UniProtKB/TrEMBL annotation, chain A:
Protein's name in the database: Glutamate synthase (NADPH/NADH) small chain
Organism: Aminicella lysinilytica
Domain Dihydroprymidine dehydrogenase, residue spans: 19-127
Top-level taxon of origin: Bacteria
Domain FAD/NAD(P)-binding: 143-449
Pfam families: Fer4_20, Pyr_redox_2
InterPro entries to which the protein is assigned, alphabetical: DPD_II, FAD/NAD-bd_sf, FAD/NAD-binding_dom, Helical_ferredxn, SudA-like
MF terms (GO), sorted A to Z: iron-sulfur cluster binding; oxidoreductase activity
UniProtKB/TrEMBL annotation, chain B:
Organism field: Aminicella lysinilytica
Cofactor or coenzyme needed: [2Fe-2S] cluster
Residue sites binding [2Fe-2S] cluster per the record: 224, 227, 239
Protein name: Sulfide dehydrogenase (Flavoprotein) subunit SudB
GO biological process: pyrimidine nucleotide biosynthetic process
FAD-binding FR-type domain ranges (all copies): 1-97
Database matches in NCBIfam families: PRK06222.1
């Protein structure tokens, strides 16, 4: 029996004018009935196009078929064969560009809601098998160090511990999870989910060293020579914020999205009992159009801002944020200035931000990225009165590991150079995730962590 | 030793405390001029403090801090045997000493705590160190014995003359330069306004100046940009590119403005710190 309904089963969620005042999760997840009903929309295509759309080739038709039969735990086991973090990826993957973007049902109507089903299965497993006792894997005597506890590092640690390696993860922040804890807000990805994944790894025997900054406290070479790690995986992300270099950017009230989100997510400035200082401005401009910009804008609204503007230099067509986040942001009352670019931030004599001067743009010929290049329309300048500006125009790669590791080669983007098996030019060192590619996605970082784990296993089994 | 356990605590005056803390991973690589970031507990903010010393064999670091606001007042409530939730480091670039023969270090108020490891580090490295320590009054004077042992010439000045000579550090500095001292470098550590004037004097005499900047920090690893300062027209991140910068390149007015950004919230927090019951909050 196939469900011919053209639309996805709608996702239950908090009403926009309720949720834009709290940090609880926006989407509430399918019920069993909704999940089964949605799973029945899959037509079990022979060529499985959806799988090719998934960076880690989750066996989508197979797990969806199990959901349709109500065999949720079996569905979970199938997903787990290729993905380590389904509760997370189901929530944050840009499905419209990946699995769902190529789903056959999407040709006429909406694709199967693969992401929502993946989340459903993972949440169902956590609720029903969550306190299952985890036995530490039998050791094989080999020691591996992982640098960075983001999705890349966690996935790598998970696969290695399952194979019996002794695994230690070094993380410079005080919490594990990388962008999953310091960047992506609670209302999109509850931190309890990330903590549960980490707890599972700990139960299996992975050691986590937080407050340990590799390259400063200890170098990769020292990990190998002095601490006797036989192999090292580097998953340090791409966390350095970029600024626009326009006048007024150092006025009081101009921050990077990283700073704003770190204060709110990692250091819980939205909760009274935390000491973290944060401003509660009334009118905010967020510059940029990615997931980071959406997260900053939606946090700002929740922190009590009356007006939040997203200023993006291309049109709605090109906006890189996940479709769902954009949709949610609009519902929550975020105002979008498309084809607009800031030229300067304005301030008063005390140095406080009073406005942002922007210029209107039009799209010209395609640039190197294939997207049409925005060009300024002369004389179209206008000022938006704001008292806070959040710069969210991308991040750069951190050079610390490259600078402090002997003879480790960079790639052309300035990231850590690897081949497609996540091997660097030093045979015992592997790398993956944003540290290699520059800012990308959770699933790609997770996939790279798994590829590296396979590579490390091969290297140490020789 | 427990992780980040306080091993000793010594009050230098009513306001300033010296802690020795177990932090082996930080201590093994620490160098003069570097700092750490700590959290008191799960609810605490992240604040930077310079390492006043370290012992890489014992795995300990020293912090000298002034109780000025909520977090540092909470720190005062911790006793020997208590532990910090987090300490990460060593952060920032170590102080550059290469090629220096004679320097003058100028410390103002609490800044003397930050200046101590620096002066001692330079002295240990064989550089001739003149040290000017300046305070408001005699009750605030700290570290004189330590400075005596860690420098070649020590000068104490206070604003009201209740200890040492009655003058500002800047006047003493002018005096020493006028007396023919040939400094390769002048190092200023203290409130921004004092560093600004100190660096201006150095510039006037054509002497290189170094200032140790204290910008707002969060991660301390270059990830947030909150600590950015205009140095010679270019934005630098104090946590990774500093904290020491050429004083003649610092945009002092911007720095002074930026370092008061949260002062309203801090004032509120400071006034409400007394409401906390039972010392530092614990959650385990
Ligand atoms: C606000 C925001 C929203 C996003 N939203 C989405 C989304 O909806 N969907 C999606 O797919 N992707 C999203 N992304 C991108 C995604 O989060 C990243 O691509 C992914 O997290 C990269 O994983 P990683 O493991 O490579 O690095 P990270 O997650 O960056 O983790 C790296 C870790 O290494 C640590 N580290 C760095 N240097 C050192 C060192 N020297 N020593 C020790 N530890 C170190 C860091 O502290 C960090 O914890 C978002 C990113 C941001 C910032
Ligand atoms: C690199 C560096 C090294 C430092 N070393 C020392 C030291 O060795 N001894 C010492 O007593 N102080 C030092 N400081 C200053 C110290 O960080 C602040 O006194 C402390 O953060 C005050 O926190 P609070 O909550 O007690 O007070 P608050 O009332 O919150 O703040 C008082 C003032 O401290 C500064 N401050 C507050 N929070 C931060 C922060 N997160 N980052 C930076 N500055 C902040 C601001 O100027 C603020 O106005 C250093 C600062 C930096 C940047
Ligand atoms: S991991 Fe992401 S891309 Fe792959 S099937 Fe799941 S939601 Fe789709
Ligand atoms: S492409 Fe869509 S309909 Fe086809 S098998 Fe995959 S999920 Fe099912
Ligand atoms: S403290 Fe975040 S970049 Fe310096
Ligand atoms: Mg404070």
């Amino acid at each position: 029996m196939i469900n011919l309904q053209r639309e996805k089963n709608p996702m239950p969620e908090q009403a926009p004018d309720v949720r834009n005042k709290n940090f609880l999760e926006v989407t509430l997840g399918y019920t069993e009935e909704q999940a089964i009903n949605e799973a029945l929309r899959c037509v079990k295509c022979r060529k499985k196009p959806c799988m090719d759309g998934c960076p880690v080739m989750v066996k989508i038709p197979e797990f969806v078929a199990k959901v349709a039969e109500g065999e949720f735990e079996e569905a979970y086991q199938i997903i787990s064969e290729t993905s380590s973090l389904p509760a997370i990826c189901g929530r944050v993957c840009p499905q419209e560009n990946q699995c769902e973007g190529v789903c056959a049902r999407g040709v006429k109507g909406m694709p199967v809601a693969i992401g929502r089903l993946e989340r459903f299965v993972a949440d169902w497993h956590a609720a029903n098998y969550g306190d299952e006792e985890i036995k530490p894997a039998k050791g094989n005597g080999h020691k591996v160090a992982i640098v960075g506890a983001g999705p890349a590092g966690l996935a790598c640690a998970g696969d290695l511990i399952n194979k019996g390696y002794e695994v230690t993860v070094f993380e410079s922040l005080h919490k594990t999870g990388g962008v999953l804890v310091y960047g992506i807000p609670q209302f999109r990805l509850p931190k309890e989910i990330v903590a549960a994944e980490v707890a599972k790894l700990e139960a299996k025997g992975v050691k986590f060293e937080t407050d340990a900054i590799v390259g400063r406290a200890i170098t990769v070479d020292e990990l190998i020579k002095e601490e006797k790690f036989e192999s090292v995986f580097i998953g340090t992300g791409a966390g350095l914020p970029s600024f626009m270099n326009i006048p007024g950017e150092n006025l009081l009230g101009v921050v990077s999205a990283n700073e704003y989100l770190t204060r709110i997510n990692l250091m819980k400035a939205y909760k009274d009992e935390y000491d973290t200082p944060i401003m509660h401005p009334k009118r905010i401009a967020v510059v940029g159009g990615g997931n980071v910009a959406m997260d900053a804008a939606r946090c700002a609204k929740r922190m009590g801002a009356e007006a939040v503007y997203v200023i993006y230099r291309r049109s709605a067509e090109e906006i890189p944020a996940r479709a769902e986040e954009l949709h949610h942001a609009i519902e929550e009352g975020i105002i979008f200035h498309y084809l607009t670019n800031p030229v300067q931030v304005l301030g008063d004599d005390k140095g406080n931000v009073t406005g942002i001067e922007c210029v209107k743009m039009e799209l010209g010929a395609p640039d190197a990225s294939g997207r049409r290049r925005p060009i300024e329309i002369e004389g179209s300048n206008f000022v938006e009165d704001v008292d806070y500006v959040i710069m969210s125009i991308g991040t750069k790669l951190n050079k610390l590991i490259l600078d402090t590791t002997d003879n480790l080669k960079a790639n052309e983007r300035g990231g850590i150079g690897t081949d497609d098996k996540a091997e660097t030019n030093r045979p015992e060192i592997f790398a993956g995730g944003d540290a290699v590619t520059g800012a990308a996605t959770v699933i790609k970082a997770m996939g790279a962590g798994k590829t590296a784990a396979a590579g490390i296993d091969e290297f140490l089994s020789k | 030793m427990k992780r980040f356990e306080i091993l000793s605590k010594r009050m230098l005056n009513d306001n300033i405390t010296w802690l020795v803390i177990s932090a082996p991973l930080v201590a093994r690589k620490a160098k003069p001029g570097q700092f750490i970031i700590l959290r008191t507990d799960e609810y605490g903010e992240r604040i930077p403090l310079t390492m006043a010393g370290h012992d890489s064999k014992k795995g300990t670091i020293d912090l000298i801090y002034a109780a000025v606001g909520r977090t540092t007042m909470l720190m005062d409530q911790l006793e020997v045997g208590d532990c910090f939730a987090d300490i990460v480091g060593p952060l920032g670039k170590p102080t550059e000493m290469e090629g220096l023969k004679k320097v003058c270090v100028v410390g103002g108020g609490t800044g003397n705590a930050l200046a101590y490891p620096l002066a001692k580090g330079m002295h240990d490295a064989g550089i001739e160190v003149d040290m000017i320590t300046g305070f408001k009054n005699k009750d605030l004077v700290i570290l004189q014995d330590e400075f005596k042992a860690g420098t070649d010439n020590l000068y104490l000045v206070t604003d009201d003359g209740t200890a040492g000579e009655k003058m500002f550090t800047t006047v003493k500095l002018e005096e020493l330069i006028a007396a023919g001292n040939d400094y390769d470098e002048i190092v200023a550590v203290g409130p921004p306004i004092m560093m600004k004037f100190t660096c201006e004097i150095a510039q006037k005499h054509g002497i290189k100046s170094i200032a140790s900047l204290t910008a707002y920090m969060i991660d301390g690893t270059g990830m947030c940009g909150g600590c950015r300062c205009n140095i010679g027209g270019e934005d630098k991140f104090v946590c990774v590119d500093g904290p020491d910068f050429d004083g003649s390149l610092v945009d002092w007015d911007e720095l002074i403005q930026r370092s008061a950004y949260y002062s309203d919230q801090e004032k509120y927090d400071r006034e409400h710190v007394c409401r906390l019951t039972g010392g530092v909050r614990y959650n385990d």
